[in-house]
């Protein structure tokens, strides 16, 4: 009974956090694919149990059966590197499934540039269990502590660092193998476009132009370009912490 109770408590923590997020942070993923308009997710990003998601899956499977092929995803969005061999969590982590069934987890390029080089990193212990949407990875940057949500459920089997290009390796549990809640394909580009808009809105002067380098690409350390900004507040908004 105790493990089950812990699971329920962790779910409640995420549910309570989710409903406090701004509406712009809770956009239904299918807005990114143009299947719905002006819809806020009401299912805590739990796509596996969402009726709308199941309907979209059925529609896309039917279209594929009649010869439809989805447009190939882009590997770069406004200079942000978006490798197409992985899935993306709304809290700005990516997940790559390895041939042995484990998941490698890293911070996406938007999140990396938003934080810059962290001053320190607090990892979950190797061997510990982590739960999807649990803030078990913490980065510190100046006066801010950024809690990174875990994108999948499982056991931590290794930890990395920015130099390695990844942060965690996770062996999924029986109930943690589903990746339906993660963004993929053409959804990723449109999601990142909305994330850039959310960042622009969160900045005091509503302008991100000074955070672009030559060619219109985001610079490597966005926060360093506006040191007087309340970055703790922006980090909470962008990384889905109410």
The name CATH uses for the topology is OB fold (Dihydrolipoamide Acetyltransferase, E2P)
Q: Report the order of strands and helices.
A: HHHEEEEEHEEEEEEHH
Mean pLDDT score: 88
Q: Which consecutive residue ranges, at least 5 long each, have pLDDT under 50?
A: 1-8
Distance between the termini: 30 Å
Which range does the strand content fall in? 15-25%
Give the domain tally: 1
Helix amount, in percent?
25-40%
Tell me the structural class: alpha+beta
CATH superfamily: RNA polymerase II/Efflux pump adaptor protein, barrel-sandwich hybrid domain
Strand order of the largest sheet: 3-4-5-11-10-7
Oligomer category: single chain
Note the overall shape. globular
- Compute the number of strand runs: 11
CATH class: Mainly Beta
Descriptors for this entry?
alpha+beta; disordered N terminus; single chain; OB fold (Dihydrolipoamide Acetyltransferase, E2P); 19% strand; three-stranded antiparallel beta sheet; globular; 242 residues; six-stranded antiparallel beta sheet; 11 strands
């Amino acid at each position: 009974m105790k493990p089950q109770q812990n699971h329920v408590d962790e779910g409640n923590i995420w549910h309570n956090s989710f409903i406090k997020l701004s509406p712009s942070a809770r956009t239904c993923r299918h807005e990114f694919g143009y299947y719905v308009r002006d819809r806020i997710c009401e299912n805590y990003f739990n796509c596996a149990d969402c009726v709308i998601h199941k309907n979209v899956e059925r529609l896309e499977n039917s279209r594929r059966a009649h010869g439809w092929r989805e447009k190939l995803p882009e590997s770069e969005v406004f200079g942000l590197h978006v490798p197409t061999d992985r899935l993306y969590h709304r809290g700005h982590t990516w997940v790559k499934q390895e041939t042995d069934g484990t998941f490698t987890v890293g911070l996406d390029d938007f999140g990396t540039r938003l934080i810059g080089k962290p001053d320190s990193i607090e990892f979950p212990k190797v061997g510990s269990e982590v739960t999807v949407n649990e803030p078990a990875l913490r980065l510190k940057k100046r006066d801010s502590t950024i809690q990174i949500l875990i994108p999948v459920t499982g056991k931590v089997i290794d930890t990395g660092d920015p130099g390695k290009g990844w942060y965690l390796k996770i062996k999924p549990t029986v109930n943690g193998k589903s990746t339906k809640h993660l963004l993929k394909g053409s959804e990723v580009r449109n999601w990142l476009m909305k994330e850039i808009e959310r960042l622009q809105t969160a900045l005091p002067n509503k302008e991100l132009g000074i955070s672009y380098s030559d060619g219109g690409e985001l610079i490597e350390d966005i926060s360093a370009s506006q040191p007087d900004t309340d970055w703790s507040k922006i980090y909470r908004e962008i990384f889905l912490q109410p």
